[in-house]
Amino acid sequence: MKIATCLVVAAVLAMGAADVSAADLGTAEKTYATVCANCHGRSGQGMASFPKLAGKDADYIAARLKAYRAGEKVGPNTPLMTPHAAKLTDEQIAGLAAYVSTTFK
Questions:
Q1: What single string gives the DSSP state of each residue in the chain?
Q2: What residue segments make up the domains of the chain, in order of their start?
Q3: Using one digit for the tens of pLDDT, what is the confidence trace for 12-43?
Q4: Based on C-alpha coordinates, what's the Rg of the chain?
Q5: Which fold has domain 2-103?
């Protein structure tokens, strides 16, 4: 798991997102596994009415999470996403976005 985290950090740094640390990505990995994977799947492929996250870039994911956090209506799953996003800081959103965009291609 440490090797995977290092690879993700290297990919994020190569993309210019130097503000996301290894600790942020480690936290994001745990958050994804315990919160996000329940609906979006363990590999971000989506499930039932929950959309696929694999292949989405970090900016897209961060923008969606910030919109949910702000209470904006994004789509039919907004009532399910808003409580989860409301708890996230900007740093956590950046970490999740970086983790998902570099881990699930």
A1: -HHHHHHHHHHHHHTT-TTS-HHHHHHHHHHIIIIIHHHH-TTS--BTTBPP-TT--HHHHHHHHHHHHTT---STTHHHHHHHHHT--HHHHHHHHHHHHHH--
A2: 2-103
A3: 444 444 467 887 889 999 999 999 999 999 99
A4: 13
A5: Cytochrome Bc1 Complex; Chain D, domain 2 (1.10.760)
